[in-house]
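Q: I have two molecules that I believe assemble together. Could you output structure tokens for the complex as a whole instead of separate predictions?
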Amino acid sequence: MVLVAWMTLACAAVVALGTQATAVLTVLAVGLVAVTILFHSLLWGTRIALVSLVVLVVAAAVPDVPPWTLNGDDARLVLGSLTGWRTPASDVAAAVALAGTAICAERVSVSLAWDRPPREPDQAREPSRWGALGTLVALAVVISVSGAGGAPLRLLAGLPLVLVVPGHALVALVWRGHSLGRAERALLDLGLSLALAALSGLALNWTPWGLGGAQSTVLLGLVSLVAIAIVARRERRTDWPALAPPPRAQALLAGAAAVLVVAAVGLSAWSAARNAGPGFTQAWLVPAAGGRLDLGLQNDQASAETYRLDLSAGGRVVHEWPAVRLQPGQRWSATAALPAGTGGELTVYRAKQPAQVYRRLRVAPG
Amino acid sequence: VLASAGLVLVALGDDRARVGTPVAGALFWTGLLVAYLPLALVALAPGTTRRERVAILCVITLLLSLVKVLQQGAGLTFYDEFAHWRSLLDIQRTGHLFTPNPLLAISPSYPGLESATAAVAAATGLPAAAAADTVVGAARLVLVLALFLFLERVTESPRMAAAGTVVFISNPRFVFFDDQFAYESLALGLAALVLFLEVRRAAGDAPRIAVWALLAICAAALAVTHHATSYALLGFLVLWLLVAAALRRSPPPAGVAALVLGAVGIWLAVAGRPTFAYLAGALGPPLMELGALLQHRGGGRHLFQASNGAVQPPWQEALTLASAALVVAALAVGLVRLWRDRRRQAPLVALALVALAYPASLGLHLVPDGGEIGNRTAEFLFAGLGAVIALAIDHVWPARSWPRARATALAGWLSVVFSGGVLLGWPPQLILPGAYLVGADSRSVDGVSLAAATWTREQLGAGNRFAADRTNRNLLGTYGGQDPVSDYNDGVVTAQVFLSPTFDGADLSILRQGDVRYLLVDRRLSTALPLVGVYFEDGEPAPVPAGRPVPASWLDKFDAVPGVSCVYDSGDIRIYDLRGVLG
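A: Yes, here they are, computed for all two components at once.
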């Protein structure tokens, strides 16, 4: 409880003082440090805390633009802020948060007896199923928040992080002494994860961070990690579940079924894209700032088209674009000015029917 | 593999429907039955193991969930989906809940679905529509698994539980309506999970404190996700409680009923205050129409005929009627079995009482606004029907004997009930994709409307007040990020502006009242009557002469109004800027 309370309060301080990015990184770092010390050793937890602190300090100093866009003066400014004596308050708060978390986690590790004897300080523990799961969850949070590894890896990491792990960890934490079959276990993993995801929005809505970015990922990841940490302490040695591979024929049939499902989805996507309708052309004429007009065309037909545009005011053509050729999907735009106090009319013709008005738009005076 | 091949046939049917080939229907229905029937029969077969039954039910659920995805492609196109999509987009944009939703005012008050979807989208990087399909798919798995495990405890038989779940999957709303991105889709799974946890708790087969903790989490998530489902669960728990008390069976589900009541009450007090007005608006008209019909005062509704006069083919009429008749017949057999063998089992009796409402729900289809309400009760009633009909299936097709003739009869029963249910629960014209139709919800969503809505965001910016027809209103509110005005949400009837031959002072007054800046006119409305009965929304003035589409001249009248600017034209859709006339 002391560890959880410290982590919560310390993170709250960083959230209040720092930027959103600093807050997210701090929450992530504090969780990682706690889990590492609980599962593994103080030494590794301290190393992670130090690296995290460096990342936090740099993240707080670097402006919110890509580094390659910084010019020489900007770079000097960043270096100056890193080496200057005025350390931001959020950095101090983050350092205190990390140090406190390390101390609390170490005290929890060596002095609190759960249902088994405490571990010896700095003695690496034999990895358990829960330890491995905790590491994977921490890794999944990092991948999901940072986007490292690209979209497929983020999808692989993010889906179980939200839809399976929170429920699994919660059930492992509270459901003791009564057996659960595989179906029941799968139901509770999925159902409770959905329930927690639904409630996470409420919890985050009443925090300064809100739930617009990676906050829900971090929250669900932290909840899972705390539950896993407690379960791991309680069940120091858990057997890995026996997963027998399915019979070869069954695996082949399942693979064939999966291929057919993918084929159906692919066929549907291809079909929808191919039958997008007869096609059309969008034309617009919108008043813009400074008395100017934004006008444009977009060809949403299956073939290229050439257009002629006349912009008139008071019955007189004031601008003409005699041949605007657009490929399928291509957009063209221009800006024009009209005499003060007059309205305008844009007439669009197609080259293949030059005498027939194709689109007519108008802007009222004033 | 066979069931997956059925899904390929469904995709082929959709493809043929997009180009208007007559064979599309045959491909689609064959594929749908191939995806459903063989697996359903194996799930009910006597020799199937429990593990296989569970796996088969999960596979059926996943395959049937993909039917809607195949039809829609990459986006969300069902009418109700747009409202929740808007709430999701608002959450992602603002980072907070409860942002007013111009498409459905009640939606932000129940943000459970959108919160979960936002979490999935943030963690995976999936686009909103894909994250929505993922969450709904997961919720449907929870629903089917929880229902199976609940019925297994109640009937004490995995086979009967599988039978009950297969019957539930055959409900008219399962394939399309319950698969849409709407709050009920998630709430049904959470409600079923509460029932499963309760039967385990009542049997003493769960850690005491833990099960209460999990029940509290599920009840809270349910209360913040959907009003009607949480009330329906509460109603069922109270019914179960009363039945248990009458039968003097213990333990009654008093604790969990109190828990759900507390969660519902707290959420109503915190954020759900507009709920009663919303539900009264939705339930009031059909109930009044039904009352009038019973007193021979009101006019009924032509069955099997859409509002635009389109009539269903005779085979569809026959299938729909046969489906309802077979369900009622099986219900009768199941009730007899219940009375003879299990009338002291409180949860089964409570489920039977729920099932008894099914014949009455069919009566709602006789009044103009009642079909929707009748259909919306289907998933709740089929939970009860599943339990009772499982008794009938076990009696007519007992596990100890499984002759070929009886298996064939069961296959026929399942085929008719399932396919007739699909026809009953979703407008037949919307089951397959295809060319644009007027006022036809998903069939009215096409590239023309999507392009216009997207253009408004790019060229006009978000948050403008728009008046438009019901389909374009939804697209403007999501793809366009605009704030469409409606009678439903704003109390401003903008339909009058469009459905009149001239533009006059009364129209200006309406537009000023609604603070409308832009009009979006879809000129295709003049080509047909709306499939769903209205171009804009309920209560709109009927075009003159009645029974004919709105004249094109009524829609084009804005071109001649001084001060009105036509800022966008794609041929079918025009957007008018009213700043010159409204000031």
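A: One point stands out. Residues 83-87, 112-125 of chain A have pLDDT under 50 and may be disordered.
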